Structure formats: structure tokens, C-alpha cells
């Protein structure tokens, strides 16, 4: 058992690191409500006018729509490409797992800024819409994360037996997958989709360099505002932060939900 | 067989179109001139040009220092995290994940709000008459900024490692008369060292590939390999994609080498253990 000093120390250290990490975010949130904050300890007054200015700006809604569309497209493509493979490898070919696992270090040896050089060299002059290349590239770079989450979803059950029983009972492969496998891994798939969506929503490097800033997503807009209008940018950063916080909250709730029954199960066995 | 093909087809097309072809073209283009002729001039430029040396040196410096500082804090943090309640642990891991995703433009902007020339910190210190310190737009500033995503990443990578350590080992070695120092050196260290090396390499590589934060924070003030590649692509220097490919090739080579060396080091450690 842990002594109370040890537990206090653990809480204190975690709290300290946590404060360090959220300090800039907190300052930005307060700043977004401040009328003016130049030579005082606290802002001079609080206001919502920066929010009203940003939200009513057509550039903002256009950027938001672009980002949402981009993220949705990326998520669908990522799932269509990765889910069948992760399923197949887990159920029928576990020996391929080690090879697939190798791709999880991919974004570290070939991050976006490296990949984009080759993509430009290949596709800059071809008559293929750059936005399609962008969606595919973001999907690929999200692979390690998606793979990890999807792979974890397959660990719990013997899916091979379940799937084959369904086939024996006369179900065709795709309906069998949808009816028997999918309900068991749906929270895993949902988490994977959420994470892919978030990473596409926050993508900057590829969007900026591949499309040369012509396709103004939320992040590109944020950078433009940052150069010109501090107040509006702090509002946008706060909104972006709230988006991330909302996604995190959903993830926490899913994990709580997924963990409670499994803990009870292990207590019984 | 036909089913297998159907399953791997979309994935295969994606990998070939977006990964294999571009990486091969990147390798080839690194030996090409702007109009397509073969040349070694790009590599010659990288070797002789002082500005390019500076980019490589800055990248190595920032990445080495941030990875080093972040892994130390992450070790302390991940270790402390294992001692909290299960539900708190999971919530905190998700929150660390969130603060790692906050990297880039929002992080750079937040830091400018907090520590920039017209920032909150300056407002507070001016009001109190304190010295202002920290220049955010410098090499030190960039290093400082990187810790905001490197620390949470490090904690997320290290947490599972510390979670696996068995608290009974400590009791066992204490019963056998081992001191705390001996226990850490002889029992814990051999188990976690390969993981520490691995996580250090991941953090180092991640910092090396960071474009967004560096660019948003310092523009092209502080030149690193990624910001240099960015500038060569969008024409802030003279646009020169083949030269960008050369830097990208050097980067990929360097990273492959580091990951390979890291694997060798950790593997030999495993064999000894």
C-alpha cells in the first residue's frame, strides 16, 4: 500500500506538471475575454465583443466548414483503408502484425514536413486535385494512431471463432462483419474515428505547403489572424481549445464506460 | 485470395500513392537540378553553405535539449501518475494527449500571449516592476516551446512502462538487504533502460520534425531543417523543391540511422538483462 506522503507527492508532482502545461492555454482564454491587458496584473475589463466579432465573420465560418469537410473526408478514407486490414491481420494473419506494427514509427522517421517534399515533386504538375492528395496524405499520417486504437479493439475477444460461426450459419462475409464483429468493436472504431478527425482538424503542415495557403482551414486562418489581430486570434485559439477539450471529455467518458464492466468481469473470474 | 486482395487494395493504393512513390521521387529529386538534370550540387550546397549548417545545428540543438529536459520531467511525471487512482490516471492521460495536440499554431500563439513582447507576463512584471527575462523568439524560446508537447508525449509513452513495474520487487530486494540506490541501479534501471532510450529517440525525432510550432513562433528567424524545407517549398527563400528534397532525404537518412542505432542499443541491453 502507498503511504500518505507518497500519495501526496504523486498528486503534487502531477499537479505541478499539469499547471505548467495549461498555463499558456489559461492565459489565452482570459485574454480572449479582456478589453485590454497591457500594463496591469489582471485585465482591465471583461467583454464578449471579440467573440461576437469573430463568430459573425464570414471568413471564420468558411474556414470552419473547410476544416470539418477535410476532417470528415480524412476519417472516412482512413477507416475504409485501415479497418479491413486491421481486422484481417488480427483474425487471420497475426504473423503479419509485426510488419504492420513497424508503420507505427513511420511519422517519426517521415513526418509531414518530409513527406510533403516528395508529394509536391510528384503531384504539383499532375492534373489531380490537390485537395484529394491532401486528404489521402493526412489519412496516411494518421495511420499509426488509428492502427494502435483499432488494434487494441481486437484484443479482447476471439473474433475468428465468432466470424467463422457466422459464415458457417450462412451469412455472407460483409453482413457477417457488420452484424457480428462491428457491434463488439464499435467503441474502438468510434475512438479511432474521433482521433483521426481531431488530427485532421488540426492539420497545418501539409495543408499549408501542399495547397500553398489557398485552402484556408481553421489552422491556416488562425495563423493569419495571429499575424494581424491578437484578440480575434485568442478567441479562435480558445474555441479550438474547447473543441479539443470536448473531444477529450468524450474519450474519457467512453473509457470510463468501457472499463467498468471489464473490471467487474475480472473480479468474478 | 481474391478476398485478401479486396481487403488490402485500398490500403495498398494509399501506401503506394502517398508513401512509396513520393519517398522514391524525393530520393531521386535530391540528385536533380531545378530543370531535371542529374547533379550532386544540392548535396555540395548542403555541405558548404554556412546557413544550411546552421539549420542542421539548430535542429540538433533544439531537439537534443528539449528531448533531454522533457524525458527527465516525463520520468518524474509518469512515475507519479502510476500512484494515482485508476480513473484519475485515465483522465489525466487523455488530458496530456489533449495538451500534446495543442502543439503548433495555437501553442505558439498562447506562448506569445503569455511571454511575448506584449504578453501577459510582461504586463504583470511591468505592473510589479520586475525584470522581464525570457526572449521567446530565440533558440531558447523555441526549446522552451517544444517542452509543452514533448513532456505530455513523454508521459504518454512512459506511463505504460512504469505501470508494468511490479511494486513487490522493491519489497523483495529490501528483504534481501538491498539499499534504495542499489535497487534502482540493479533492478529497475536494466528493465526500463531500453524503454527510456526508445522514448528519448521518439521525442528527439518528434522535435526534429516539428515545423508548425517553430514556424508559427519564430517565422524564419530561427532556421531549422523543417522551417528551411518549408521556405524552400513555398518560395520564401527562392523556391527550390529539389533542394528541399535533399534536406528531406538527409533528414530521413539521419532518422533511420538514429532509430536503427537505438534499436541496436536497446536490443543488446535486453540480451544482457
TrEMBL record, chain A:
Which Pfam family is one of this chain's hits?
BPD_transp_1
InterPro entries, alphabetized: MetI-like, MetI-like_sf
In this protein, which residues make up the domain named ABC transmembrane type-1?
A: 64-255
Q: What is its main location?
A: membrane
- Swiss-Prot/TrEMBL keywords: Cell inner membrane, Cell membrane, Membrane, Transmembrane, Transmembrane helix, Transport
As for subcellular location, the record says: Cell inner membrane; Cell membrane
Gene3D superfamilies with a match to the protein in the record: MetI-like
Q: Where are the transmembrane segments?
A: 12-34, 68-93, 100-120, 132-150, 189-211, 231-255
Membrane topology summary: Multi-pass membrane protein
Family to which this protein belongs: Belongs to the binding-protein-dependent transport system permease family.
The record's PANTHER family line, in alphabetical order, gives: INNER MEMBRANE ABC TRANSPORTER PERMEASE PROTEIN YDCV
Could you tell me what this protein is called? ABC transporter permease
UniProtKB/TrEMBL annotation, chain B:
The annotated topology with respect to the bilayer is:
Multi-pass membrane protein
Keyword Transmembrane helix annotated: yes
Subcellular localization: Cell membrane
Q: Which InterPro entries does the entry mention?
A: MetI-like, MetI-like_sf
GO terms for cellular component: plasma membrane
Gene Ontology biological process terms in this record: transmembrane transport
The record's family statement is:
Belongs to the binding-protein-dependent transport system permease family. CysTW subfamily.
- Which PANTHER family does this one have? INNER MEMBRANE ABC TRANSPORTER PERMEASE PROTEIN YDCU-RELATED, INNER MEMBRANE ABC TRANSPORTER PERMEASE PROTEIN YDCU-RELATED-RELATED
Name of this protein: ABC superfamily ATP binding cassette transporter, permease protein
Give the species this sequence originates from: Levilactobacillus spicheri DSM 15429
The lineage is: Bacteria, Bacillati, Bacillota, Bacilli, Lactobacillales
Amino acid at each position: 500500500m502507498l503511504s500518505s506522503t507518497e500519495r501526496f507527492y504523486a498528486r503534487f508532482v502531477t499537479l505541478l506538471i499539469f499547471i505548467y502545461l495549461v498555463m499558456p492555454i489559461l492565459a489565452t482564454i482570459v485574454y480572449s475575454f479582456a478589453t485590454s491587458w497591457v500594463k496591469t496584473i489582471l485585465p482591465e475589463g471583461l467583454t464578449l465583443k471579440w467573440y461576437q466579432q469573430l463568430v459573425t465573420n464570414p471568413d471564420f465560418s468558411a474556414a470552419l466548414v473547410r476544416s470539418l469537410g477535410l476532417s470528415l473526408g480524412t476519417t472516412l478514407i482512413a477507416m475504409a483503408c485501415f479497418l479491413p486490414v486491421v481486422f484481417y491481420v488480427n483474425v487471420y494473419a497475426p504473423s503479419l502484425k509485426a510488419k504492420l506494427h513497424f508503420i507505427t514509427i513511420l511519422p517519426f522517421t517521415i513526418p509531414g514536413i518530409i513527406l510533403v517534399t516528395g508529394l509536391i515533386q510528384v503531384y504539383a504538375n499532375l492534373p489531380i486535385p490537390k485537395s484529394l492528395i491532401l486528404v489521402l496524405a493526412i489519412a496516411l499520417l494518421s495511420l499509426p494512431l488509428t492502427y494502435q486504437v483499432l488494434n487494441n479493439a481486437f484484443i479482447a475477444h476471439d473474433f475468428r471463432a465468432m466470424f467463422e460461426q457466422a459464415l458457417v450459419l450462412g451469412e455472407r462475409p460483409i453482413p457477417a462483419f457488420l452484424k457480428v464483429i462491428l457491434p463488439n468493436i464499435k467503441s474502438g472504431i468510434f475512438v479511432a474515428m474521433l482521433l483521426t478527425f481531431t488530427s485532421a482538424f488540426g492539420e497545418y503542415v501539409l495543408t499549408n505547403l501542399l495547397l500553398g495557403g489557398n485552402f484556408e482551414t481553421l489552422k491556416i486562418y488562425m495563423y493569419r489572424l495571429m499575424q494581424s489581430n491578437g484578440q480575434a486570434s485568442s478567441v479562435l485559439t480558445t474555441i479550438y481549445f474547447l473543441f479539443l477539450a470536448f473531444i477529450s471529455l468524450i474519450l474519457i467518458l467512453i473509457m470510463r464506460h468501457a472499463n467498468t464492466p471489464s473490471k467487474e468481469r475480472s473480479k468474478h473470474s | 485470395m481474391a478476398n485478401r486482395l479486396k481487403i488490402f487494395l485500398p490500403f495498398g493504393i494509399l501506401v503506394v500513392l502517398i508513401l512509396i512513390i513520393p519517398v522514391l521521387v524525393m530520393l531521386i529529386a535530391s540528385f536533380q537540378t531545378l530543370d531535371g538534370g542529374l547533379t550532386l550540387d544540392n548535396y555540395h550546397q548542403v555541405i558548404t553553405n554556412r546557413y544550411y549548417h546552421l539549420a542542421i545545428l539548430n535542429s540538433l540543438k533544439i531537439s537534443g535539449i528539449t528531448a533531454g529536459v522533457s524525458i527527465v520531467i516525463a520520468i518524474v511525471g509518469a512515475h507519479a501518475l502510476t500512484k494515482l487512482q485508476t480513473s484519475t490516471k485515465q483522465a489525466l492521460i487523455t488530458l496530456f494527449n489533449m495538451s500534446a495536440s495543442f502543439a503548433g499554431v495555437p501553442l505558439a500563439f498562447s506562448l506569445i500571449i503569455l511571454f511575448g513582447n506584449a504578453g501577459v507576463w510582461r504586463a504583470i512584471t511591468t505592473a510589479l516592476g520586475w525584470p522581464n527575462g525570457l526572449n521567446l523568439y530565440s533558440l531558447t524560446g523555441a526549446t522552451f516551446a517544444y517542452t509543452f508537447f514533448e513532456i505530455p508525449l513523454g508521459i504518454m509513452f512512459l506511463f505504460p512502462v512504469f505501470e508494468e513495474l511490479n511494486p513487490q520487487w522493491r519489497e523483495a530486494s529490501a528483504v534481501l538487504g538491498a539499499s534504495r540506490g542499489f535497487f534502482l541501479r540493479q533492478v529497475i534501471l536494466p528493465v526500463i533502460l531500453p524503454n527510456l532510450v526508445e522514448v528519448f529517440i521518439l521525442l528527439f525525432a518528434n522535435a526534429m520534425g516539428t515545423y508548425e510550432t517553430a514556424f508559427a513562433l519564430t517565422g524564419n528567424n530561427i532556421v531549422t531543417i523543417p522551417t528551411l524545407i518549408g521556405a524552400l517549398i513555398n518560395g520564401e527563400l527562392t523556391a527550390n523543391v529539389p533542394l528541399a528534397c535533399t534536406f528531406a532525404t538527409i533528414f530521413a537518412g539521419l532518422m533511420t540511422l538514429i532509430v536503427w542505432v537505438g534499436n541496436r542499443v536497446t536490443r543488446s541491453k535486453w540480451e544482457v538483462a
